[in-house]
Amino acid sequence: MDTTAEQAPAPDRRASAAAYRNLVMATIGFTLTFWAWNLISPLSGDFKERLGLSSFQQSLLVAVPVLVGSLGRIAAGALTDKFGAKLMFPVVSALTIVPVLLLIPAKNSYGAMLAVGFLLGLGGTTFAIGIPLVNSWFPPEKRGLALGVFGMGMGGVALSGYFTPRIAEHDVNLPFWIVAGALLVYSLLAAVLITDHPGRTVPTDSLAHRLGSAGRLRVTWELSALYAIGFGGIVAFGVYLPTYLKTWYEMSPTEAGTKAAGFALVTVVFRPIGGWLSDRVHPALVTAGALLLAALMAIVQAFDPPLDPLGTIALLCMAAGLGTASGSVFALVSQVTPQAKVGSVTGIVGAMGGLGGFVPPLVMGAIYSAKDSYSIGFMLLSDLALAGAVYAYGRMRTIRRES
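RE: above sequence
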């Protein structure tokens, strides 16, 4: 009797040392490039005074690198599918040094700052490089947590917001030199320590064809919508929460900034928790539950509760829900996306998440200007999050990977 099948060893589902090495390097690179990506925002008040900018000009200066970085993820993801993260991570990290250093001579000209801000958007594209790298190295049952840990690199924006202005107090150019030096060291280490998975499938078709192919997948746009709610909500609150707290609760800029930093920290912590839960429960269920929590807390906040303690609890629980959803959506990407298209799909989904963060602040500001209240804005957020929760539960938990 043939006992070959009985004697064949079970496949090893443990993540290798190489997997964890790549995860650590990708997370560090993601954090550093996101710090670079956000260098202008914490110093925008200084630039406004130095260059005599209007509020709109200041907002545009902050928005340019974010918008370019979000859209750039589409190309970065497709290029990662083709050339691999071993090439893309060190190259993009090294190229980001250029606009970081160009901020030094450009800081006295608004036009030059806009141009450099456009180039600085390159730092925001590494998200679409790291997701396919981490996804390829970890077995399915460990991908959720691994992708969530990688996603904590978005904390680079919070680090920049806290440390950049404090470093600049010593010397206005010092933050740029420090970040450029860190990127240089990282790019050299990444060239040595990051390795593509030996089983990686290398596409042979053109960049345009791969992006078109990813764009034709229905799941790409379904995931984009869910990520635009989860991560878009995080970006929106990161941009608008200090203004909301100062305007509605009459907090000082320092107090509002501290509260906003706490919100950002909660989203960073809960992103890997969303991935970890997705390894144990279907990520669509995790996404639905997280968005439902965010929807309920938005309803609570719509009734303008006192900040201590109910308002603070509602905002922090909303942050937990949005952070969890951001982690679980990319666990869902790894389950329903063909492996060879993970980079391309990630690029599109990541771009939509980044862009999704810029509509809510505009809506909140417009509603407050018209109605002198934020309640309608929070109710719209609750409606959107609830719609995402229903769709994730009703549609995404039954979906299978498309060929």
